[in-house]
């Protein structure tokens, strides 16, 4: 604001007036002396401007409240907090500091008195279960801090209710933290178990906080981070939260409602047993931390009781089991810091909510020149190469982010960026069983396609496969059931899709890999491409086996077999497919990246309609 004073005022007086008014009114002030057009002095309000006569301050009541909050933030009994270091993991509030604490994990001044990280905008339910344990709760006589041998603190994560909670047990925040935070520049909802409180077990007040957080995420449309370290339901206090309409069961209902609406990312820091194990499998993406995390439908103790099997938690449900055998873990982190790094990378490919485009980045050239693509692809369709090397010549440098790398490894599923645009890649991996599609590979690819489609991430299929694997074992493993899910997901996806026939596209493999019949925006062939019901060797054997068997001379038979193979390959060559307009274009391999970038850009806003129906019946 501008203030005019008499012409007799000195510059010092004008400056004093500017400072005083700025502090008193909380606005910037310019002081003009007499008729001067330019201000003689100016001042900005102090960072916090209060009326000069206001000398009020916090009372004992507020100081007591801050002391109560600080006590709650200390977590459960000290001895359980001391054990965390031995277990190789952080106390939950130090974990929040790692995730949301800003540069170097420093705390924000605005929340320093409460001990909260800078990026935590607020916490809900700090005083949950306060009346049940705190000596300062209304009506309590100060009680002791003893009796802290709570349920669920066994090494295997079992929550057996062997020792009931009593009034002396510490139950700060009821062992579960929820709130809103800023993570990598994004607003997110979060929940985090406090393992020092009854081994992170779930009880009525904590369950209510969890449910409220999920309901609010449905309203805001912001992503959700689940930082899990829970032994399951608190068995000795299960009344009022287990089977209720608004109990633990509602977690998974809400997970289902959130699925495909906002990204849900779960990180496991310890044993997640029984009901707790469903949150990571319902999440869109699950990260397990090596050496400390596990998830299972029941603890080793319960497994032995029910089945007689003796097994430790690592072999029952550790990271290797879920990353390589069940497919429930998308990523495995070395430690807590690495887990945060992985999620920071992952969220960069995702929008905040369904219906929004994923965020774009500044384009980068690929790690290796696209000019090497043709030499990378062997001429023989049976010789392997690593499809990751192909991606390194297509995708922006350092942008390839692979998921479920140890599960169904005959297929690669990964995010990457092409000219700065996030893209979901489904690629056959010729180094793994020639890139044949096995049940696990089909299942993980179907789920990946489904997730990409939910979050508007365009799809790139890199096809080089002899097709779906045959044999009695894969039939028992559900090759038809899991294969149809991949075909269904590909058929139903309405995001822009580009398919590249890199080399062999045999059998139903071309169907699963987004072939011409599956409404891709483009089907591109490289000169190494072939499309056929089956490969030359199998075809010749199927059609000409009897004729070849009638040739007695081995050399003559081999020559005739080679001639028939070459004749067959001419029929399935990508040039024939282009001539018959089965594919849209054959592109020089060196131009593949530029072609894909141009096509994804051109078709960015393509609209596709699905039949009007409630939903399909396949997934």
Automatic annotation (TrEMBL):
Biased composition (Acidic residues): 146-166
Family annotation (SUPFAM superfamilies): ClpP/crotonase
Any Gene Ontology biological process: L-leucine catabolic process
Biased composition (Basic and acidic residues): 131-143, 353-365
Domain CoA carboxyltransferase C-terminal: from-to ranges: 372-612
Family matches, as InterPro entries: AcCoA_carboxyl_beta (IPR034733), ClpP/crotonase-like_dom_sf (IPR029045), COA_CT_C (IPR011763), COA_CT_N (IPR011762), MCCB/AccD1-like (IPR045190)
Boundaries of every CoA carboxyltransferase N-terminal domain copy: 56-362
GO MF entry, a single one: methylcrotonoyl-CoA carboxylase activity
Record region (Disordered): 33-61, 102-121, 129-177, 351-381
Any one GO cellular component localisation term in the record: methylcrotonoyl-CoA carboxylase complex
Protein name per Swiss-Prot or TrEMBL: Propionyl-CoA carboxylase
């Amino acid at each position: 604001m501008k203030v005019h004073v008499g012409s007799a005022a000195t510059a010092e007086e004008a400056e004093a007036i500017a400072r005083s008014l700025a502090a008193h009114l909380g606005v910037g002030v310019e002081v003009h002396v007499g008729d001067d057009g330019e201000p003689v002095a100016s001042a900005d309000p102090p960072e916090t401007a209060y009326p000069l006569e206001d000398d009020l301050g916090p009372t004992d009541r507020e100081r007591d409240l801050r002391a109560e909050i600080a006590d709650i933030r200390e977590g459960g009994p000290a001895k359980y907090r001391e054990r965390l270091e031995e277990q190789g993991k952080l106390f939950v509030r130090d974990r929040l500091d790692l995730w949301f604490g800003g540069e170097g994990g420093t705390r924000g001044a605005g929340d320093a008195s409460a001990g909260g990280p800078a990026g935590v905008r607020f916490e809900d339910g700090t005083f949950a279960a306060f009346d049940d344990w705190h000596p300062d709760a209304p009506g309590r006589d100060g009680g002791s801090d003893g009796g802290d041998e709570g349920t669920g603190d066994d090494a295997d994560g079992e929550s057996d209710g062997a020792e009931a909670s009593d009034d002396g047990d510490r139950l700060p925040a009821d062992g579960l933290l929820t709130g809103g935070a800023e993570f990598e520049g994004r607003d997110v909802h979060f929940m985090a178990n406090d393992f020092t409180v009854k081994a992170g077990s779930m009880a009525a007040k904590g369950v209510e906080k969890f449910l409220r957080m999920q309901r609010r995420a449905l309203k805001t449309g912001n992503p959700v981070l689940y930082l899990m370290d829970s032994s399951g339901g608190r068995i000795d206090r299960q009344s009022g939260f287990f089977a209720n309409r608004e109990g633990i069961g509602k977690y998974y209902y809400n997970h289902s409602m959130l699925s495909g609406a906002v990204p849900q990312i779960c990180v496991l820091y310890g044993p997640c047993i029984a009901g707790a194990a469903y949150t990571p499998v319902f999440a869109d993406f699950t990260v397990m931390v090596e050496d400390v995390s596990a998830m299972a439908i029941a603890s080793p103790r319960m497994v032995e009781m029910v089945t007689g099997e003796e097994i430790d938690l690592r072999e029952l449900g550790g990271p290797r089991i879920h990353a390589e055998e069940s497919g429930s873990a998308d990523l495995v982190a070395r430690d807590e810091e690495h887990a945060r790094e992985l999620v920071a990378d992952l969220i960069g490919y995702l929008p905040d909510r369904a219906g929004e485009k994923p965020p774009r980045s500044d384009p980068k050239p690929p790690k290796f020149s696209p000019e090497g693509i043709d030499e990378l692809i062997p001429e023989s369709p049976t010789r392997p190469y690593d499809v990751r090397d192909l991606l390194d010549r297509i995708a922006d440098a350092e942008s390839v982010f692979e998921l479920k790398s140890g599960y169904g490894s005959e297929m690669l599923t990964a995010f990457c960026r092409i000219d700065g645009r996030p893209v979901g890649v489904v690629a056959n991996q010729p180094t793994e069983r020639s890139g044949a599609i096995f049940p696990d590979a089909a299942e993980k690819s179907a789920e990946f396609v489904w997730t990409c489609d939910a979050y508007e991430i365009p799809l790139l299929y890199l096809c080089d496969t002899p097709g779906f694997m045959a044999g009695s074992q894969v039939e028992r493993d559900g090759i038809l059931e899991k294969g149809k899910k991949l075909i269904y997901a590909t058929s139903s996806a309405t995001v822009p899709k580009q398919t590249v026939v890199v080399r062999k596209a045999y059998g139903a493999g071309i169907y699963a890999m987004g072939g011409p019949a599956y409404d891709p925006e483009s089907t591109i062939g490289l000169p190494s491409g072939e499309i056929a019901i089956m490969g030359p060797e199998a075809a010749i054997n199927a059609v000409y086996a009897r004729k070849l068997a009638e040739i007695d001379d081995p050399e003559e038979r081999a020559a005739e077999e080679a001639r028939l193979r070459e004749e067959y390959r001419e029929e399935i060559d990508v040039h024939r497919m282009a001539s018959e307009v089965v594919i849209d274009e054959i592109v020089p391999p060196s131009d593949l990246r530029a072609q894909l970038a141009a096509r994804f850009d051109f078709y960015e806003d393509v609209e596709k309609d699905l039949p009007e129906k409630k939903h399909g019946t396949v997934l």
